[in-house]
Design a protein that fits this description.
The protein is an alpha/beta fold and 320 residues long. It has one domain: Glycosidases (TIM Barrel), CATH 3.20.20. Helices cover 39% and strands 13% of the residues. The protein has helices spanning 5-19, 39-50, 80-87, 101-123, 135-138, 141-145, 154-168, 184-187, 193-198, 218-235, 262-276; strands spanning 23-27, 62-65, 90-95, 126-133, 178-183, 201-205, 241-245, 282-284. It has an 8-stranded parallel beta sheet with strand order 7-6-5-4-3-2-1-8. Helix 2 (39-50) packs parallel to helix 3 and helix 3 packs parallel to helix 4 (101-123). This is Probable glucan endo-1,3-beta-glucosidase eglC. It comes from Lasiosphaeris hirsuta.
Length: 320
């Protein structure tokens, strides 16, 4: 039976995912100062993450991005792409979708330009493409109540997914796994089914830390996380569920019963992260978010300076 090239690429992606789960962190396109990261910045971050002392499994060799556009440009490809090529870092690409059609068009142009400029050196590193990030949550009553940035409707995200598929058809990125990232509360909302139907995979962001209406102490966090993932899996009809964001703050404000700190962050890492690493595609939040200023809360497993020494033991060794 003859198969198209894109079908074979899709099969290869499926098999590679089954053999080895992607393991990495989320990376923003700017520093906390608002300055755009350049290629050298991304390379330094990726290399440092790969060298983390005590990292479980094969280490943290994947990066999830939120945008494909380089900061400070109209539609140039993000410099994280050549940085990933130079450091052999796999990429979960991000297409920003919460700022209207013109911004989405710029994202799409950046993606097409990256394929043309970097070719297979780039496309062979792509773990998947996330069309949007928490857009459905931001457009929900809860998101509006929390005064989040504008989101996008499910019909819009589904349309964007189709446009991305059309844009990469016939390129070396054809057959890439395309999905959407959102909160677990968005995935269990039946009004968002169009996005589920349009996606190859489902990215779930789950933070028991923020679930202040429930008993969300770190002792209960593993149960809350498992409930969130289980509810998502039940809602998405058997599609693969990837963990695109989760973590626990090392510092910052108490939310409900969740108290930030190194001890609790390590407990969450051990109980939630360690079973995921090497078994489920996972991008932890986060590697570093305190550069140069420290946000409140701060989720980074390293502090203000790049270092291969994490703030707590990340080895996933069983404590007896």
């Amino acid at each position: 039976m003859m198969h198209s090239a894109s079908h074979l690429v899709a099969l290869a992606a499926t098999f590679s995912s089954a053999l080895a789960a992607f393991q990495g962190f989320n990376y923003g396109s700017t520093f906390t100062s608002g300055a755009a990261k350049q290629q050298s910045d991304f390379e330094a971050e990726f290399k440092t993450a790969q060298g983390l002392v005590g990292a479980p499994g094969g280490g943290f060799t994947s990066a999830r991005l939120y945008t494909t556009v380089q900061g400070g440009t109209a539609n140039d490809p993000i410099s994280a792409i050549p940085a990933a090529i130079n450091t052999k870092t796999s990429l979960l690409l991000g297409i920003w979708c919460s700022a209207g059609d013109a911004t989405f068009a710029a994202e799409l142009q950046a993606l097409k330009s990256a394929i043309t400029k970097y070719g297979i050196d780039f496309t062979k590193l792509v773990a998947g493409i996330s069309v949007g990030s928490e857009d459905l949550y931001r457009a929900s009553p809860t998101g509006l109540l929390n005064k989040e940035n504008p989101g996008a409707e499910p019909s819009t995200i589904a349309r964007y997914i189709k446009e991305v598929r059309d844009a990469i058809a016939g390129t070396s990125l054809a057959g890439a796994q395309i999905g959407h990232v959102d909160t677990w509360t968005a995935w269990v909302n039946g009004s968002n089914k169009a996005v589920i139907d349009a996606s190859d995979w489902i990215g779930v962001d789950a933070y028991p830390y923020f679930q202040e209406t429930q008993a969300n102490s770190v002792a209960n966090s593993k149960g809350l996380f498992d409930d969130a993932v289980g509810a998502t899996q039940a809602a998405v009809g058997g599609k693969p569920v990837w963990i695109t964001e989760t973590g626990f703050p090392v510092s910052g404000k108490t939310v409900g019963q969740a108290v930030p700190g190194l001890e609790n962050a390590k407990t969450y890492w051990d109980q939630v992260g360690c079973p995921l690493f090497g078994a489920t595609n996972t991008w932890w939040y986060t590697f570093q978010d305190a550069a140069p200023a420290t946000p409140n809360p701060s989720f980074g497993i390293i502090g203000n300076s790049l270092t291969t020494t994490p703030l707590f033991d990340i080895s996933c060794k069983v404590t007896k």
